[in-house]
Write a structure and sequence with these properties.
The chain is of the alpha/beta class. Helix content is 32%, strand content 23%.
Length: 392
């Protein structure tokens, strides 16, 4: 691996602090990122044991955004129309936002975080609160193979590719397919979205890298959709090389060509990205300094895992941001890791008491701007760092 970026010492992104452990020393790790010129894989260089991140206290729920709910709903319609699967499995089913679109006899969830798995279980969906691996795959598909496996924003969290893809091969039916959805490296680099890297995001994938990984397990991409979720993601349609039921769409080659043209196979692209990240930090700090010099209050919107990287890398703390609004009940009343900024229950923005809002959940800009239309019309301003730091 060729290291190209160092985002400093970082706490675990989803380890929100309680008031009583606010002064306790937090566990930190060095967040540096590297590129492998042979496999084209971009990954973080130091990892944290998975049990420390994905456990019964996992705070993130996909259902907190209308954008994600709609995205899953639309995909479920496409799946039923185009692939007509009789049995579906979701890896990393979170709180069941995708699962909910199917009948209970048609879909199975796998979610290692018990608090989330319990939500889908309570709703009557069969859910295994375990890590996805060959043993679990054998157990689940013993009597009936799976026609379609779906996994959104999960692959980037799993270190051991071999375990995942061997399990996929064991569970899929003859004509079965795998749909993976993850942030696109191309969009991440273009938008200087360095906050896509944190302890849980071990990788941000390019089609180039994913294709090579899949090939080791006799799997291949047969179609790609470039979608808007999470700041620009790719939805990969994957099948076994033996499965001749689907033809490879021209979009696969097109994506690869675009990525190569952009230079995702070259170290110099990542060095340039690192340079852009340093500039982004400088500019964002200048914006905060300027607003604070006028004694203006700034609050945050969306206490995301990504915010942890930005706040700690740019050294933005409660001296700059008074508090964050977030809609997730688990996060409310807690403090962001490292920066120790308080998270409050969301209230509709009003220029009566706030003029500047840092957009932590920049990936939901459209949804949030729609919700806060009045605030914007009244002259309220958002601060964003994507694709470059500015006030809008
Ligand atoms: P959001 C998490 O990352 C962690 P995060 C994880 N590692 C991952 O990969 C992605 O999700 C998928 C709040 N919010 O989706 C809700 C509002 O308050 O960008 C969430 O706390 N009001 C699994 O945390 C946060 O913002 C709103 O109107 O970076 C959004 O988090 C909206 C839309 C959201 O993911």
């Amino acid at each position: 691996m060729k290291k190209f970026l160092d985002l400093g010492l970082q706490p675990l992104a989803n380890s929100y602090l309680n008031k009583k452990n606010l002064n306790r020393k937090e566990k930190k790790f060095r967040l540096s990122i590297g590129f492998n010129p042979k496999s084209y894989l971009v990954s973080i260089l130091n990892t944290v044991p998975k049990e420390k991140m994905f456990n019964e206290r996992y705070p993130y729920k996909s259902s907190e955004s209308v954008t994600m709910k709609n995205s899953f709903k639309n995909l479920s319609r496409t799946i039923n129309k185009k692939f007509k699967p009789s049995l579906i499995l979701e890896i990393g089913s979170n709180d069941g936002t995708f699962i909910r679109n199917f009948s209970r006899d048609k879909i199975i969830g796998v979610e290692p975080c018990k608090n989330l798995a319990n939500i889908t279980k309570k709703n009557g969906y069969k859910t295994f609160s375990e890590y996805w691996d060959p043993e679990l795959a054998k157990k689940i598909s013993k009597n009936k193979k799976i026609d379609l496996i779906y996994s959104a924003n999960t692959l980037s969290h799993i270190k051991n590719f071999s375990g995942i893809f061997r399990a996929v091969n064991l569970a899929l039916s003859e004509k079965g397919i795998l749909i993976l959805e993850d942030p696109s490296l191309l969009e991440c680099i273009k938008n200087v979205a360095y906050d896509q890297f944190y302890c849980e995001h071990l990788y941000v994938f390019s089609t180039l890298a994913l294709e090579k990984i899949l090939s080791q397990f006799n799997l291949e991409i047969f179609d790609i959709e470039n979608i808007k979720t999470h700041g620009g993601s790719n939805r990969y349609f994957i099948k076994s090389k033996k499965n001749k039921f689907y033809k490879i769409n021209h979009r696969v080659l097109k994506n690869i060509r675009i990525e190569k043209k952009f230079g995702l196979n070259k170290l110099r692209t990542y060095k340039k990205f690192a340079h852009n990240v340093i500039n982004s930090k400088k500019k964002l700090n200048e914006i905060f300094e300027k607003i604070k010099s006028k004694n203006e209050k700034i609050i945050g919107y969306g206490a995301t895992a990504k915010s942890c990287t930005v706040l700690n890398y740019c050294r933005l703390g409660s001296d700059k941001i008074d508090f964050f609004y977030d809609t997730t009940s688990y996060k409310i009343g807690k403090y962001l890791p490292g920066s120790k900024i308080k998270i409050k229950s969301y209230k509709k923005l009003s220029t009566k008491n706030i003029r500047y809002v840092f957009l932590g959940a920049w990936n939901f800009k459209k949804e949030i701007f729609k919700k806060e239309k009045k605030f914007i019309q009244q002259g309220g301003k958002f601060i964003t760092h994507i694709p470059e730091p500015k006030i809008i």
